[in-house]
Amino acid sequence: EKTLQKPNLKFKVVDISKDLNKIKDSSFTVVFAMRSLHYFDDETTKKVFKEISRVLAPGGKLFFECKSVNDPIVGQQGILIKHFFSKDELEDLLPGFVIEKVYEKPSLDFYKTSSIFISVCAKKGNQATNIHGTF
For the chain, how long is the longest CA-to-CA vector? Predict the structure, then answer.
């Protein structure tokens, strides 16, 4: 746990696939996962999203970016990427969240290859999941 310039701002860096179970319910206001969630198989991915929902406080925000189902390497053998994300599956992965923004973007900075990522901003709440908007 570290404190930045503001004394009330603290953050934790954790292995999102293993260490979330050590964190109390509703103890975070923001969860940020940058290009990490696509390395897990489907079963682990579902567990990770359930744990994120558990540790995120109501009204808290989840920001993540990961490989899209439209990425050029989908279907290739021998790659580290195990899960490619689509806008359609977000409702299943994020029940109880309002997806405020979602978009796909190309990138050339991922292992120096052409890639397509999906970026998501979602808010935990009591409303049904609703996908809309763009960044």
Answer: 47
Encoded tokens for 123: 């808010």
**What percent of the residues of the chain are helix, what percent strand, and what percent coil, each to the nearest 5?**
20, 40, 45
Q: pTM of the entire structure?
A: 0.81
Size (the chain), residues: 135
pLDDT at residue number 133: 40
91, 63 Cβ separation under 8 angstroms: no
Sign of CA dihedral 117, 121, 125, 129: negative
Residue 90 host element (H or E): helix 90-93
Alpha helices in 17-59 (DSSP H): 42-55
